[in-house]
Amino acid sequence: MTVRRPAERQNEQYRGSDDHRAPHGGLLIAASFVLLGGRGAKVLEQYPRARKPSSCGTHGLIETKRLRLRRLSPADEPDLIALDSDPDVMRYVGSPAGVKSPAVTLERVRQRIATDHGPLGFWRIEARTDGAFYGLGALIPMPTGADVELAYRLVRRAWGQGIATEAGTALVDYAFRALGLPRVVAVTYPENGTSRRVLTKLGFTAQGERDYKGAQTVFYVLPRPG
Q1: Sheet holding 121-127, edge to edge
Q2: Which residues, 6 or more positions from 34, have their beta carbon under 8 angstroms from its beta carbon?
Q3: Burial class of residue 17 in the structure, from the number of CB atoms within 10 Å of its CB (0-12 exposed, 13-18 middle, 19+ buried)
Q4: What is the CATH number of domain 2-223?
Q5: In a designed cystine with 121, which of 19, 36, 177, 193 is the match (CB 3.0 to 4.6 A)?
Q6: Number of C-beta neighbours around residue 197 at 10 A
C-alpha cells in the first residue's frame, strides 16, 4: 500500500459505475456530519503520540493492489448520491438505517464533500485500473469521546469480492501509521453479519453492545499493533 502526498496526485478523470451479494452497506456512518478538519484535529490532539495534521498528508492518495482511495471532490456527487439512494446499500447504514429523502441525501453528500479536509474524513473507493466507483470509506470521530471510527459502504456490484476488507485494511493502516492513533473502533448493527465478518478479518474484536445515536449496535475495537 502506498500513500501519496497532495503534490504527487495526478489530475485524472474518474468515472463512476453502479451496481451484487450480502449487505456491504457496512458500518454505520454518523448521521450528522461535523467539520472534520476541526473536530478531527481536536480528537487527534488528545493523543500525545499522534502526528500533527500538517505532517499526515491530509489529502493523501492511498493505493492497494486493486484499489485507489482518494479524498472527495465535487465530481463525486452523482456517484455518492446513487450509493446512498440504494435501499440494499443503506439497509444497515444510518441511525435509523435506510434511505433518506432525496433532499436529505443531497444535503448530506454535499456536506461530506464540503467538509472533507484535515487528517480525518472520507475516501472514494475505486478501481485502481480504471477508476470505477466501488463505494465510500471513512475515518471519522465518534459522536462522543476521543475514538475514531472506521466506516464504509459499497455499491452492490462490489460485494463479495474482498473489497471491503482491502479498503478497510488500507484505512486502518493509515490511521495507525500516518496518524499514530492508539486504536480504531467500529460500530455495526448486530444483524449485519457481513460487516461483522469483515471486522473480524481486519482484527477487530467485539466489545459488547452499546447505543449509537439511538440505535443498538455492536462496538468493535482494534488496538494499534505493538
Answers
A1: 2-4, 61-63, 67-71, 121-127, 133-141, 148-154, 183-188, 215-223, 205-212
A2: 115, 141
A3: middle
A4: 3.40.630.30
A5: 36
A6: 13
Q: Phi-psi category of 180—alpha, beta or left, where left has phi over 0 and alpha has psi -120 to 50? A: left
Helix and strand totals (H; E) in the chain:
5, 9
Start-to-end CA span in the chain (Å): 20
pLDDT at 137: 98
pTM assigned to the model: 0.79
Q: How many CA atoms lie within 13 A of 79 on its CB side?
A: 26
Average pLDDT, the chain: 82
Q: Which of 29-43, 99-113, 164-178 has the lowest mean pLDDT?
A: 29-43
Choice between 198 and 27, residue whose per-residue pLDDT is larger:
198
Instruction: Work out the average pLDDT over 4-27.
Output: 35
Domain residue limits, the chain: 2-223
- Which of the pair, 214 or 203, is modelled with greater confidence? 203
